[in-house]
From TrEMBL:
It is a peripheral membrane protein. Belongs to the ABC transporter superfamily. Residues 4-238 form the ABC transporter domain. Keywords: Amino-acid transport, ATP-binding, Cell membrane, Membrane, Nucleotide-binding, Transport. GO terms for molecular function: ABC-type amino acid transporter activity; ATP binding; ATP hydrolysis activity. One of its GO terms (cellular component) is plasma membrane. It comes from Ureibacillus manganicus DSM 26584. This is Peptide ABC transporter ATP-binding protein. CDD domains: ABC_HisP_GlnQ. The keyword Signal does not apply. It is found in: Cell membrane. Pfam families: ABC_tran.
């Protein structure tokens, strides 16, 4: 069963068409990596999925809800889609635990103690239980990104979107963040991950999508796409990054 259905999605910025007729379905529990050159539309595509961007035309259904319907309760549906960015954007004057429990209390009406119990479980899951009372500035980039993942998970989303979650990290921090994502994948979280980590894409993802120039040029099993790309543009991109 598809949890995400994108049909004929187009996105313009002014005269520039950035997404050109994207159609794709994502199954429940599927882990999809999106790769492609800078400027190919990967971030815009992710942002359209939780309607951080207004789309120009097409339809996007997430968990059966029409994300593009102006009459629907977009804030409620957006809660079903967690997002993790390259920049972690934690609230600097709040502790790690306060960062994690804020949205469940404000947006989901959880009690403080309920949110804290969930928050501590999630911090344990990302290996940062002992940092609950620290401030973001006291944490490394990799730790901050793991807090950002816990914060997104605290909303109990149906699907998690990651936009280059390790690109801003020092190399020695990357592994810990990827391991948390791998664990989520193993637990059956539906995930769409824009990444330059080709090893992760190959080993963890069920499907890889190669985007270029606003199109999905090629998609398939990572082993097939990486070892035997069908399109010249995919071959050329992979030859530069592998
Ligand atoms: P990627 O994530 O693959 O690097 P993006 O989705 O960020 O690509 O960008 C795709 C194209 O859209 C680029 O040409 C970029 O300059 C343009 N773009 C992205 N965001 C905006 C914006 N807010 N306004 C105008 N153009 C944008
Ligand atoms: Mg991007």
């Amino acid at each position: 069963m598809s949890i995400v259905q994108v049909k004929n999605l187009k996105k313009h910025y002014g005269q520039m068409e950035v997404l050109k007729d994207i159609s794709v379905e994502i199954a429940e529990k599927e882990v999809v990596c999106v790769i492609g050159p800078s400027g190919s539309g990967k971030s815009t595509f992710l942002r359209c999925l939780n309607r951080l961007e207004e789309i120009t035309s097409g339809t996007i259904l997430v968990n059966g809800h029409e994300m593009t319907d102006n009459n629907s309760d977009i804030n409620k549906f957006r809660q079903e889609v967690g997002m993790v960015f390259q920049q972690f954007n934690l609230f600097p004057h709040k502790t790690v635990l306060q960062n994690v429990i804020l949205a469940p209390i404000k947006l989901k009406g959880k009690s403080k103690s309920e949110a804290e119990t969930l928050g501590m479980t999630l911090l344990e899951k990302v290996g940062l239980k002992e940092k609950a009372n620290s401030y973001p500035s006291e944490l490394s980039g990799g730790q901050q990104q793991r807090v950002a993942i816990a914060r997104a998970l605290a909303m109990e989303p149906k699907i998690m979107l990651f936009d280059e979650p390790t690109s801003a990290l020092d190399p020695e921090m990357v592994g810990d963040v990827l391991n948390v994502m791998k664990e989520l994948a193993n637990e059956g979280m539906t995930m769409v991950i824009v990444t330059h980590e080709m090893g992760f894409a190959r080993d963890v993802c069920d499907r890889v999508i190669f985007m270029d120039g606003g199109y999905i040029v090629e998609e398939g099993d990572p082993k097939d796409v990486f070892t035997n790309p069908k399109h010249e543009r995919t071959r050329s991109f992979l030859s530069k990054v592998l």
